[in-house]
Write a structure and sequence with these properties.
Elements: E1 5-11, E2 14-21, E3 29-33, H1 47-50, E4 55-59, H2 76-89, E5 95-100, H3 102-113, E6 118-124, H4 138-143, H5 152-163, H6 168-171, H7 173-185, H8 190-201, E7 216-221, H9 229-238, E8 243-247, H10 254-257, H11 259-271
Parallel strand pairs: 3-4, 3-5, 5-6, 6-7, 7-8
Antiparallel strand pairs: 1-2, 2-4
Helix pairs in contact: 2-3, 5-7
């Protein structure tokens, strides 16, 4: 199995960059959606794992990574339409959709707006938004105000230290170095970050959760300072048939903090559907 290969596809007049790993006979498609300030490289360690069974895809949201920059504001619903366009252009639907944080906002909007394109939802450290949203702890709030006077690597590590479980980043220096290198390779500009952050402020699918019929796994760390655990609990209560999987003493990046467990648990869920 080779590593991810990078591509671009036109969606509504813009180029969306994506990575792909695919076996000779895939059992379906998995689309990974990253969070605020991140790019598709956040999933590069996961794609070869999932790509042993599935056509595994991860994209750069509009205005980030190698996707086209935009100047106008947009919403998480617009980003969901981008993901829908990518799945349709690649003939990759219906897909299992795995969304982290803001990527979970996008995944929820994708399921609401384009239900025929979604086979299952895995909602990681995310929220329905709106009045139901439980706001961040102080460390989580601080992480939302990145210091652009720092280098991209320093800025990323400062943020990761705030949002992961205490001591986790220092206990994993090799992984921290890779995360810093990823940030240097694809830094988000201050203006791009501001537009992406504003897109999260209007996210609200609370009123549509009861209408979702897609199989759903809610995966959340109980020590998440940014998107608090109560938000995951609310999703699991509100989406019919949803399952909640809790990772103890885990912060906002369970896909990294609990890498082996995450891959095992999500693959087991996908195998059911």
């Amino acid at each position: 199995m080779t590593g991810p290969t990078g591509h671009k596809v036109a969606v509504d007049g813009r180029l969306i960059a994506y990575d792909e790993v695919c076996p000779p006979q895939p059992q379906g498609t998995v689309l990974f959606l990253t969070g605020l300030g991140g790019t598709r490289v956040a999933w590069r360690a996961h794609l070869p794992v999932f790509g042993q069974r599935y056509r595994a895809l991860s994209l750069d949201h509009r205005d980030s990574g190698n996707s086209d920059t935009v100047e106008d504001d947009y919403t998480t619903a617009d980003q969901a339409d981008d993901a829908a366009g990518l799945l349709q252009a690649l003939e990759a639907a219906p897909a299992h959709v795995v969304g982290l944080s803001m990527g979970g906002f996008v995944a929820l909007n994708l399921a609401v707006r384009h239900p025929a394109l979604v086979r299952s939802l895995t909602l990681v450290a995310t929220s329905a938004g709106g009045a139901s949203h439980v706001p961040p702890d102080p460390a989580g709030l601080e992480s939302l105000r990145p210091n652009f006077d720092l280098s991209p690597a320093e800025r990323a590590l400062t943020t990761y230290r705030l949002i992961t479980a205490p001591g986790w980043l220092d206990a994993n220096p090799d992984l921290a170095a890779r995360m810093a290198a990823n940030a240097e390779a694809q830094p988000l500009s201050p203006a791009g970050y501001a537009r992406q952050f504003r897109s999260t402020r209007t996210h609200d699918v609370t009123g549509q959760l009861a209408q979702l019929t897609v199989p759903t796994l809610v995966l959340h760390g109980d020590a998440d300072p940014l998107v608090r655990y109560e938000n995951g609990q609310h999703l699991a209560r509100s989406i019919p048939g949803a399952r909640l999987l809790t990772y103890p003493a885990t912060g906002h990046l369970p896909q990294l903090e609990r890498f082996t467990d995450f891959n095992r648990d999500v693959l087991a869920f996908l195998a059911e559907h």
